[in-house]
Amino acid sequence: VQLQACGGGLVQPGGSLRLSCAASGNIFSWNLMGWFRQAPGKQRELVADKGSFGSTNYADSVKGRFTISRDDAKNMVYLQMNSLKPEDTAVYYCKLVQRSVQYWGKGTQVTVSS
Q: Model confidence over 71-86: pLDDT tens digits?
């Protein structure tokens, strides 16, 4: 299984970005896909995840601003990020969990700065 994330970049505070992650390989019908982030000097933290059957979790810090979605036909997961803040600056990682095995993609940098 391989994960490829894209969509990061530099955006001003209050702006929006949409991250995409494509999963390839042996993808099972039941899985959990999500996004984590890691800021300099901080631990990696959950941003949002979504199961195959719709269960969704968000970090409190992004609730109401970020939306996770999936396209299972394409094995894609997206993260729509609105009202971005400087504290959202981090490397964002895509993650897939299936049959108790975790897979990580390479990160994509998101920088929120004026």
A: 999 999 999 999 999 9
